[in-house]
């Protein structure tokens, strides 16, 4: 099977390296110094589960150089999906499966606006990792996993085939009964990232202070109530179950969105708290904490994208 990894950051670098180590035919999309390092030395993965290296890798900075992949794993930032859809459409064949692993709940939908729905799966991953330096991926917390399924919930042969590929590569993979519910469970969890950015705290710090801990609980509760209004099938005690998970995260850990905001880079805020705000208005669900987070980050987000607020 020919596999394309679109975006070789903390997510794509880790899972792509695992697939390459298992001797699958993998091509990586990367850019700049990351691309040069992969082409020259391959990828080195530093992991709490064990370090490893893969060499002699195929890599490019042009999607259209990738020829007819059977499986495309999309690991770019959520806001970059719209920018790559047309190029992805050019390289796939009739049976290609496209698996997006973005944060948020819109990736599969946005891909399907330009690409046939029969090619697009819904998916998510759980991993805390980053590019430590060009060609070096640091997985420093959590057990990496991938959940995926058909957008309509159907159980198909291609899902089993892809699951077997992941398992052969030593990747914890699961086909849940309700992929949409799983997407929302992760989505609710990750939206705390914006609150970390605003309060300039780590997960340990935000949960330690009673004031910010309550804000965190209220933020999660708002999104849970929104999910229920939208008919998502999530258990009634989801909020209570989620807090201990956050409590178990390393004290000094943060998230990619948090770090992007702090570093003045474009972030996924529109696809996290921003989406909560928009869906809340659409479905008449109050989201004051999420609105505060989104509105607080919006000015720096616009600046990070090179926009002049005076001209808006």
Descriptive overview:
With 312 residues, this protein is α/β, with parallel strands linked by helices. 45% of the residues lie in helices and 19% in strands. It has helices at 10-21, 32-41, 81-91, 107-112, 157-168, 179-190, 192-199, 203-208, 210-229, 238-247, 256-262, 273-282, 288-304; strands at 2-6, 25-29, 43-47, 52-54, 58-60, 71-74, 97-100, 121-133, 136-150, 172-174. The strands form two sheets. A five-stranded parallel sheet has the order 5-2-1-6-7. Strands 3, 4, 8, 9 and 10 form a five-stranded mixed sheet that branches. The chain is globular and about 50 Å long. The model has no long low-confidence stretch (mean pLDDT 96).
Query: What letter string, H or E per element, gives the SSE order?
Result: EHEHEEEEHEHEEHEHHHHHHHH
Main beta sheet strand tally, sense and closure: 5 strands, parallel
Indicate the CATH topology of the largest domain.
Answer: Rossmann fold
Low-confidence stretches: none
Percent strand equals: 15-25%
Report the structural category: alpha/beta
Distance between the termini: 48 Å
CATH top level of the largest domain? Alpha Beta
What's the mean pLDDT score?
96
Total separate domains: 2
Q: What global shape is seen?
A: globular
Q: Give me the side-by-side strand order of the main sheet.
A: 5-2-1-6-7
Q: How many strands?
A: 10
Named at the architecture level, the CATH assignment of the largest domain is 3-Layer(aba) Sandwich
Helix content: 40-55%
Question: CATH superfamily membership of the largest domain, which one?
Answer: NAD(P)-binding Rossmann-like Domain
- Counting DSSP H or I runs of 4 or more residues, the number of helices is 13
Our Rg estimate from Cα atoms comes to 19 Å
């Amino acid at each position: 099977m020919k596999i394309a990894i679109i975006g070789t950051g903390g997510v794509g670098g880790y899972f792509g390296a695992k697939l390459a180590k298992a001797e699958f035919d993998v091509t990586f999309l990367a850019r700049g110094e990351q691309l040069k390092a992969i082409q020259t030395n391959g990828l080195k993965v530093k992991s709490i589960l064990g370090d490893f290296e893969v060499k002699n890798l195929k890599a490019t900075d042009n999607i259209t150089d990738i020829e007819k992949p059977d499986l495309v794993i999309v690991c770019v930032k959520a806001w970059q999906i719209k920018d790559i859809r047309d190029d992805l459409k050019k390289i796939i064949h009739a049976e290609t499966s496209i698996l997006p692993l973005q944060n948020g709940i819109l990736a599969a939908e946005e891909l399907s606006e330009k690409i046939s729905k029969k090619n697009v799966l819904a998916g998510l991953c759980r991993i805390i990792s980053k590019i430590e330096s060009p060609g070096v991926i640091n997985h420093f917390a959590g057990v990496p996993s991938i959940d995926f399924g058909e957008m309509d919930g159907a159980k198909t042969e291609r899902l089993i085939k892809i699951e077997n590929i992941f398992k052969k590569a030593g990747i914890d993979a699961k086909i849940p009964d309700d992929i949409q519910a799983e997407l929302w469970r992760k989505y609710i969890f990750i939206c705390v990232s914006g609150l970390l950015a605003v309060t300039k705290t780590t997960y340990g710090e935000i949960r330690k202070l009673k004031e910010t801990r309550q804000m965190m609980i209220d933020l999660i509760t708002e999104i849970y109530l929104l999910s229920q209004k939208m008919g998502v099938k999530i258990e009634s005690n989801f909020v209570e179950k989620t807090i201990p998970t956050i409590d178990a995260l390393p004290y000094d850990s943060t998230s990619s969105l948090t770090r992007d905001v702090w570093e003045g880079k474009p972030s996924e805020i529109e696809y996290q708290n921003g989406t909560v705000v928009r869906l809340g208005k659409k479905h008449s669900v109050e989201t004051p904490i999420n609105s505060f987070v989104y509105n607080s980050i919006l000015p720096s987000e616009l600046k990070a994208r090179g926009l002049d607020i005076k001209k808006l």
